[in-house]
Give the backbone structure.
Amino acid sequence: MILKLRRKQTRYPDLSPGLSYVVIGIEADHFRILNDQGRPFLYPSRLFNVADRHKPDDWVVKRGDEGELYAYPPPLNAVGFF
């Protein structure tokens, strides 16, 4: 998945409008991306427009008790990895 920030966010100064961010995981419908400092961090999905919805076929995908999405590639899917 590829995201673009909707607009500059004062609460999230580590993201830049106009840049593309590759999703490295999804937790409870939040996107884990590498921010502008190269750190993996979770951000609310509402901050982004989705430029490409494709998730790799090998990702481990689960739904929580309330229907929330969890998805990671196998190497990052271990409990406590992040």
In short: The first strand starts at residue 2 and ends at 5. Strands lie at 2-5, 20-27, 30-34, 40-44, 48-52, 60-63, 69-72. The chain has one domain: 2-76. The mean pLDDT is 92.
